[in-house]
Design brief:
A hairpin with a 2-residue loop joins strand 3 (223-225) and strand 4 (228-230). Helices cover 53% and strands 4% of the residues. Among the domains are: 17-134 and 245-298, no CATH class; 373-449, no CATH class. By secondary structure, it is mostly helical. It has 23 helices and four strands.
Length: 449
């Protein structure tokens, strides 16, 4: 392949803490205290390499627990699967790996509402983590035979005697080609035939187990898919989709949208498609190119999904998982892990509305609750600028826009101006600092990246 065939623009502006902070939010779950400054010192290329090729997995901070101090039971207790994964986002040192695992969870949206097994959902989660930046074709093959997916989209109900089209349709519409792009209803029916043959056993007290491919249930007859004839099986069904002419454009646009909220320029789109095909459907080169693209740093801000917002606040505040409340709070905000609303995944256009914003307000309050300043014990400075700086330091000094800073300073000055008695002058600074912590967390600057 010629060197110029897959060239994409690279950001050439300043790469300081502000740019590193955005990168850590888009390619992870925000910075811990001092992490943006440390990453900025690596430069853009070094920062992206550090994210795409991290070192050995390590977890920083105390192990997760519930309110009673007990370890989590992610395969058994309700909501503990959500807490288990949130903990990995908060304490792990491979943020992009966890973020890509979240991308694949949304891309191949599988809900425990239909699977009914936290164990199988966590097993699928490990699969996404294993293939996080590898071959998309290999990921697709692994997902197709994954037990949670087989249960979710009726794969084990699909036999030569009664073909089930659920997975065949979503394989093309949602996973590889896009709705109405390059396939027909006949292709759906023929793909369903190719995908026949999976089954599982079931036992009281255990549930579904021993998932396998049974050739006796598979339709070995001739099929016609995308105009090609053959005795296709489930592996052929996946490969035919990935090698379809409509797949690269679908893949690039969908993956791009997880990192940048505006469509890629046409030249960039085409270059990424060529790079993807030439790289035999490897994900790593495409993600690396997206993370270095000028639009990630110079383009518009992007609303953080609820789980990213929550994990980021916990990371910024230096707090771990010590309450089960994060499960229902994130659910109220619109995103409980392992429970996407449907096979299409979460709708990013609905991250902020009158219902979910209230839940974000509650999330911010829950993060700060354990660190609330007692005005009877803490002597905070009677100075608006210092109070704002102290509140920002609580979150690891995130960057605020000038407009947000002006509003917060004006609020602080108004509040201090009402302290017309000695006891108010002693108490108000701590109370105002508490409120500033909360207001910073729910500001537009921290709701977006």
């Amino acid at each position: 392949m010629p060197q110029t065939a897959a060239r994409t623009p690279v950001y050439r502006g300043d790469f300081g803490p502000e740019q590193a902070e955005r990168l850590l939010w888009r390619a992870g779950f925000g910075p811990r205290r001092g992490q943006a400054e440390a990453l900025a010192k690596k430069g853009l290329d070094g920062a992206v390499k550090a994210l795409t090729a991290p070192g050995r997995q390590r977890f920083i901070g105390p192990r997760p627990r519930d309110e009673r101090g007990r370890p989590l039971a992610p395969r058994d207790a309700w909501g503990h699967d959500h807490l288990w994964w949130l903990d990995r986002m908060v304490r792990g040192n491979r943020p992009l790996m966890e973020r890509m695992t979240l991308v694949w969870h949304d891309w191949f949206a599988t809900s425990n509402e239909g699977v009914g097994s936290q164990n199988l959902m966590i097993r699928q989660n490990a699969l996404f983590r294993r293939y996080w930046l590898g071959s998309f074709q290999q990921l697709l093959l692994a997902v197709t035979r994954d037990p949670a997916m087989l249960l979710w989209l009726s794969g084990t109900e699909n036999s030569k005697w009664a073909p089930n089209e659920n997975y065949a349709r979503e394989l093309m519409e949602l996973f590889t080609l896009g709705a109405g792009r390059g396939y027909t209803e006949r292709d759906v029916r023929e793909q369903a035939r190719a995908l026949t043959g999976f089954r599982n056993s079931w036992k009281e007290g255990i549930g579904p187990y021993r998932f396998r491919f049974d050739r006796e249930r598979h339709d070995v007859g001739m099929k016609r898919i995308f105009g090609r004839r053959g005795r296709f099986d489930w592996q052929d069904a996946c490969r035919l989709c990935v090698r379809h002419k409509s797949h690269p454009s679908f893949f690039v646009r969908k993956l791009w949208g997880y990192f940048i909220p505006v469509a890629p320029p046409r030249a960039t789109q085409k270059a990424l498609e060529r790079r993807y095909v030439a790289g035999r459907y490897a994900v790593r080169p495409i993600v690396s190119a997206i993370l270095q693209h000028p639009l990630l740093y110079e383009g518009p801000r992007m609303v953080k999904p609820p789980i990213v917002y929550t994990a980021g606040l916990l990371r910024g505040a230096g707090r771990g998982i010590d309450t089960e409340s994060w499960t229902w709070l994130c659910a109220n905000a619109g995103q409980q892990l392992f429970f996407p609303p449907n096979v299409a995944g979460w709708n990013d256009d609905r991250w902020l509305d009158t219902a979910t914003y209230l839940a974000r307000w509650d999330i911010a309050g829950r993060v700060t609750r354990n660190e609330t300043l007692d005005p009877g014990k803490v002597q905070a400075p009677f100075d608006a600028d210092k109070l704002l700086d102290r509140a920002l330091a609580f979150w690891g000094n995130p960057r605020l826009s000038p407009a947000t800073r002006r509003v917060l300073l004006a609020y602080t000055r108004r509040a201090l101006a009402t302290a017309n008695q000695n006891w108010k002058r002693r108490s108000y600074p701590a109370l105002v600092e508490n409120s500033l912590r909360h207001l910073i967390a729910v500001s537009p600057d921290l709701q977006t990246s």
